[in-house]
Amino acid sequence: LVAHLRTAGLLKTQGLIGGKWTDAYDGKTIQVRNPATGEVIADVPCMGGKETNDAISSAHDAFQSWSKVTATERSKCLRTWYDLLISHKEELGQLITLEQGKPLKEAIGEVTYGASFIEFFAEEARRIYGDIIPATLGDRRLLVLKQPVGVVGAITPWNFPLAMITRKVGPALASGCTVVIKPSEMTPLTALAAVELARQAGIPPGVLNVVMGNAPDIGDALLGSSQVRKITFTGSTAVGKKLMAGSAGTVKRVSLELGGNAPCIIFDDADLDVAVKGSLGAKFRNSGQTCVCANRIIVQEGIYDKFAEAFSKAVQNLQVGNGFSEGVVQGPLINEAAVQKVEKFVQDAISKGAKVLLGGKRHSLGMTFYEPTVISDVNNEMILSREEIFGPVAPLLRFKTEEDAIRIANDTNAGLAAYIFTNNIQRSWRVTEALEYGLVGVNEGLISTEVAPFGGVKQSGLGREGSKYGMDDFLELKYVCLGDM
Ligand code: ADP
Q: Where is the catalytic site (predicted)?
């Protein structure tokens, strides 16, 4: 498979600076491993501040011309890139499964989803309209122009090796910005293949650069540069806070997609099948490793037992294994630390009185495979419901009234996604309005799409990605006053 990807020209193992494939200046490398087998897939450069500064200079030079290219041209480049991503979706999906572990079908789904941002923003590139404002004085004309913010530093995580990049780079390029991408060191190969396709699509040298290696050094170079006008980040809340603080020195714009603690509320009046299917999708997608995964399944007392039984049955059917094996829907966790974290959370819950209905331990496959798990009698004091689990563990909490459900759901510093299941239309509206979250799924567990705004409130982040609103984060408004008219 690796040989096949290499032949296809999609196994790139160097950074990209100013259009040139580049090694670390001191020749250092880091290994990229397959989480399902532990095997080394490739060595990639371990870069730091020097390479990052050069990537920033390249992006800054390229900005001078890319920001002046017509919207039609930028749109065409993005559309060609989209076509290339789609025509290589099998290979890109294989790369994702290789380095990230998710089942191949889900990985190819990520390619389609990831590419959709490039398609969508290829279209949005042509709709960056300004405004004309009625003037307060007769001899004046007031206008608003929208201009690209400049060089963008984009730092992305391992759980969606492609989509987290395209969701940032799509609107950045559409608006005329240039980008230095720092993918996760655990999943850089997908990012490199994607920018190779961008290169083939005619996106000019320096518009997209990729560095990877020593994350804090790369981060410091991006933060310290006054040429970098914006940081866009998806990852942990802790790192997001550091980047926000570090952006203060040069007053950068900041967009953050941070951790969630999604409640999934099942009311007595929900359709049981819809609730089981929806919460299963919301919980177990990517083996629970997404920031919008249901972290707490909060179930009303009248339906609790029925739901717990039906949900556990559905979870029992989830096949665990190597993402390349037919029928597998749950891959490995990303690494040993992720499994240890899940084990710690589960132990804490058990020691405080929770009951394991299913799973609750490592899978017999070994490595970083963990059994899909359901735990009942969880309360909001357990770590399971305080922190993001990022693993295949579904905690069930019990509630009595609608007010209780809302209080439990909002009792967290996170505010990304929430899900509710009910057949009462008034309740669905009331609860949706009361939830302190950026996204709400009503009777649906999989809600992300390129056409809708994705983002959190409270400590889950700043800004929105995707949709027409996703352009705003990459555009500055310039007010122009024409006098003596
Ligand atoms: P996760 O738990 O999802 O790995 P992280 O926040 O640790 O979340 O990682 C998300 C991205 O942030 C990765 O690309 C990682 O390398 C990067 N990162 C981690 N620490 C820093 C830092 N100090 N400066 C810049 N980037 C960082």
A: 257
Residues of the chain with pLDDT under 50: none
Which uninterrupted H or E stretch holds 229?
A: strand 228-234
Q: Which of 51, 99, 257, 388 is catalytic?
A: 257
What is the reported pLDDT for 1?
A: 87
- Going by C-alpha positions, the residue among 71, 67, 106, 70 that lies closest to residue 206 is 67
Nearest residue by C-alpha to atom 7 in ligand 1: 236
Atom of ligand 1 nearest to the CA of 220: 24
3-state class percentages of the chain: helix first, strand second, coil last, to nearest 5: 45, 20, 35
Helices (H), 35-160: 49-66, 71-87, 89-100, 104-124
User: Which of 44, 46, 155, 390 should be mutated for ligand 1, with most atoms under 8 A from CB?
Assistant: 155
Whole-number Å distance between alpha carbons of 291 and 97: 19
Beta pairing, strands 15-17 & 20-22: antiparallel
Ligand 1 binding pocket (C-beta < 6 A) is: 155-158, 182, 184-185, 215-216, 219, 235-236, 239, 242
In a 10 Å sphere around its CB, with 0-12 CB exposed, 13-18 middle and 19+ buried, how is residue 179 labelled? buried
Q: How far apart, in whole angstroms, are the C-alpha atoms of residue 23 and residue 14?
A: 5
Strands of the 439-442 sheet, one edge to the other: 355-358, 373-376, 393-399, 294-300, 262-266, 417-421, 439-442
* Predicted local distance difference test score (pLDDT) of residue 159: 98
pLDDT at residue 184, rounded to an integer = 98
Closest CA to 161 of 124, 189, 126: 189
Distance of CA 303 to the CA centre of its chain: 33
| pLDDT value, residue 93 | 98
CA of 255 to the centre of ligand 1 (A): 14
257: annotated active-site residue: yes
The size of the chain, in residues, is: 485
- From 10, 43, 11, 9, select the one nearest 27 (Cα to Cα): 43
Quote the CA–CA distance of 418 and 432 in Å, as a whole number: 9
DSSP line for 237-303:
HHHHHHHHHHTGGGT-EEEEE----EEEEE-TTS-HHHHHHHHHHHHHGGGG-STTSEEEEEEEHHH
- Using the mean position of ligand 1's atoms as its centre, give its distance from the Cα of residue 235 in Å: 6
